[in-house]
């Protein structure tokens, strides 16, 4: 159901310069940021250039600090459980590589895992760690009973992606969290596509570690991300790279580790982008992520139902609960070509190759799909224009795709 009035929607669209130029359905790639986010970044950079980098930091220290509070509020964490990163891969990798595994240990994951996470898993397999992949059932749902069956005394970690970058579905992270807690297994969630799209509450999820990026549904600038590490788990992770932000009392005999999650960060980063991330989080919180999620579902449902009436268009989304990422293909036409034609006409969609979610794509024998990822600031009319263009593309002679091969 549409829960946001046209008046409210127009405000958000007026807040976003990009909305007047393009139809943007690549929010799972990078959303259009609100103008206030970019203005914050630019103003801070100018201030640095005018007064000096350190001087500007001292002057703005309270605002920079506030970004941690805002992220904590977004995910229901403590401020001392948040670290800021340049992207989700660095956040995820810092946590994962900080864990210690012995040969014979087991890690359980899902078929929808993101490529970065699979690279990390592939590396620990070389050290004798067993990786168990729980495949979705025939309906595309994560089978909780199989997870319970897979857990044994050697299981050291459960690792899942909440909203995968392909497939249109959602994993039941709260239920998985209950199981992880029942068996006392460490639990790590990739919430990259979740942040800003779907409400996150780390206490309800009962996760120990959670990572996310800024540029996707959060509408923050590129080059931002964050990591949550539960207070009681922080000492179980070794920081893989440290500078003076992480350690004090440094001598050749050792050092004292910082007492919060910022021990996993490095000191030098873009303060301008940190503030931009904070602004984006604040913007989402002001709307309410639960309200954003309702509207995203409404628009994605509308898109799926419109697509289903276009001859030649197949929606590939799986699972009983679906997100704002709609994946589809057009019969006889290469998905990259479909993507290019839409983009040529000012409609931003993306091409999803096999590389992002290799296990899932191979299982479903998908070479590539087109991905239309909807955000709350999109409109029904934008969806209708995508559909009318798709009708023409689907009708067009499929030899066009032969020519590009
Ligand atoms: C995009 C994405 C990532 C990686 O995020 P980066 O910020 O590009 O490092 C990780 N997991 C999922 C599910 C993603 O969609």
Structural notes for this entry:
- Pfam families: Aminotran_5.
- Residues 25-383 form the Aminotransferase class V domain.
- Keywords: Aminotransferase, Pyridoxal phosphate, Transferase.
- By secondary structure, the protein is of the alpha/beta class.
- It folds into 2 domains: 6-33 and 288-396, Aspartate Aminotransferase, domain 1, CATH 3.90.1150; 37-286, Aspartate Aminotransferase, domain 2.
- The chain is built from 15 helices and 15 strands.
- The protein has a 7-stranded mixed sheet, with helices on both faces.
- Helix 2 runs antiparallel to helix 10 (271-287).
- It is globular.
- 45% of the residues are buried.
- Bound molecules: pyridoxal-5'-phosphate.
- Pyridoxal-5'-phosphate binds at residues 87-89, 114, 116, 161, 164-165, 190, 192-193, 213, 225.
Element order: H for helix, E for strand: HEHHHEHEHEHEHEHEEEEHHEEHEEHEHH
Alpha carbon gyration radius: 22 Å
The CATH architecture name of the largest domain reads 3-Layer(aba) Sandwich
Strand elements, count: 15
Treating each run of at least 4 consecutive H or I residues as one helix, how many helices? 15
Number of domains: 2
Output mean pLDDT: 95
Low-confidence stretches: 401-405
Look at the structure and give the CATH class of the largest domain.
Alpha Beta
Alpha-beta content class: alpha/beta
Helix content percent band: 40-55%
Shape: globular
Q: What is the CATH topology descriptor of the largest domain?
A: Aspartate Aminotransferase, domain 2
Largest sheet: 7 strands, mixed
CATH homology superfamily of the largest domain:
Type I PLP-dependent aspartate aminotransferase-like (Major domain)
Terminus-to-terminus distance: 42 Å
In this entry the ligands are: pyridoxal-5'-phosphate
User: How much β-strand is present in the residues?
Assistant: 15-25%
Spatial order of strands in the largest sheet: 2-8-7-6-5-3-4
InterPro entries: Aminotrans_V_dom, Aminotrans_V_PyrdxlP_BS, PyrdxlP-dep_Trfase, PyrdxlP-dep_Trfase_major, PyrdxlP-dep_Trfase_small
Cofactor: pyridoxal 5'-phosphate
Keywords: Aminotransferase, Pyridoxal phosphate, Transferase
Family: Belongs to the class-V pyridoxal-phosphate-dependent aminotransferase family.
